[in-house]
Amino acid sequence: MDSExxxxxxxxxxxxxxxxxxxxxxxxxxxxxxxxxRCAFLQLGSVGxxxxxxxxxxxxxxxxxxxxxxSILDRLGRVLAADVRATGVFADPQILSDPxxxxxxxxxxxxxxxxxxxxxxxxxxGRRFVWLKRDVPDSTAQxxxxxxxxxxALQSYQRRVYPQGSLAGQLLxxxxxxGSGLEGLERKFDRELTGTDGRQQxxxxxxxxxxxxxxxxxxxVRDGANLVLTIDSVIQxxxxxxxxxxxxxxxxKWGLALVMxxxxxxxxxxxxxxxxxxxxxxxxxxxxxxNRCLSDVFEPGSTFKPFxxxxxxxxxxxxxxxxIFCHNGLYRTGSRTLRDHGxxxxxxxxxxxxxxxxxxxxxxxxxxxxxxxxxxxVRSFGFGQETGIDLAGESVGLVAPLKDWTSYSTTSxxxxxxxxxxxxxxxxxxxxxxxDGLLYRPTIVREVVSPNGQVFWRQVPDENPQRVLDPEVAxxxxxxxxxxxxxxxxxxxxxxxxxxxxxxxGTSQVPGPGGYLPDAFVGSFLGGAPLDNPRLCVLVSIxxxxxSIGYYGGTVAAPAVGSILQQSLAYLGVPTEPQPTxxxxxxxxxxxxDLDR
Length: 597
Prior knowledge:
By secondary structure, the protein is α+β, with helices and mostly antiparallel strands.
């Protein structure tokens, strides 16, 4: 009885309950299997890879540490170009919820019309970063920050500055918005000047707050190397000032000037006019940005005469006192008629043919030399060849092959026609009179130095310069012939107090289609000082000045060279020289000392 009662109180579970539990268990297992399959699919499949990449992008952020572009310095470490830190305003269109409102709020602060800002944001094409304005003042940056607009932020970056304005603009060149060099030294040495940006990757929360950073993802910043030039910014300023004054006074179309140390070929100044400011290159023209000292060629005119005369002396064909009949200013040779400037000359000494720049006298010298020796003389001074300077864009000039020379060439080339030279070639060759007959490779970059002062590369001095003249001939040309050009010849306007100057004037016509352009001239002067121990050689060429004001080299260029020499020598502390009463007996006095064709 008790057992029956007990059984009735604990009946066995119904079969249907058991089946239900089994079914639930199966469902749970199937769901778990499905989830496992889904997880495996997400982990191993292409969709999973995309999801992982998306999660990584959402959780990871990369902080870029901008590097500084190397500076460009003059020979004494004065800054010509450098990077400074600046701040800009940018937008992230992906998280900017109300672009029209943001543009309206920023318009007044950034001084940009709101429609223009809105266009910048909407044309981002899915990008997460678009500049709205670069280089904003700190006060403006703080006001933008105070607005607290989600999707509008500030970004620091490096901005290129040129603290000396337009000084040496064509030499330095400029950089683009991305900081890469586009012209000049900025482009030529872009690899050395460019640094390597640093970066740090970190994991962040949904509010972009950093949770942790991995040391493995850190890359340190490496700033660019500094470029140290041979240029002296003070001498560069003196040179540019005198070039500007000459070009302005004579209403020239262009001008160039170079200053070189004749003892080693180092360039202390390289100037072009018109000038431009590298910081504002977008408003300049290609003509303003031309480095004419290297790229432009012109007939040297009478500045070429000393080179031919020196070779004639070296070969023993003439002595300084030999007399040359200059046919009273009118000389017919073959089918050609040559004329001298002014009233013309009768008999001149060989020295005075150069001192007074007689075209006829030099034509006779050329005839005695002959084309073969003339060609060798021209080539020996480096004309028709690159100088090897460490700059881009150098022209080789124009010297025809000997086989193309004619009887016209015999009389034209000694007076600087039928050849075309660059300013750099001309000054380099002239330095041979100052350094006893040597032709140095010109240099303008002294060294490349790391930010901490380690020298990566240094210009190797030209220890084996080419000898182009016998030392005695070079000294004779400098001390007598070229010194007398300034004392009593065509270059008297280059005289300065304190130092004796040697030099040569030159005036050439400008070639054009079918012949020379009417009333178009280039007036040049090559000069050096001090006479006994030359420290500087200078070239000034004034292109196409107004003829009614002046155009001869002795008029438009010689005074500028004199001023550059006087100011630069004083700046360098070069001791003054005693001034002689006369350097040599005067054999002829021109009634037109400034005239030189």
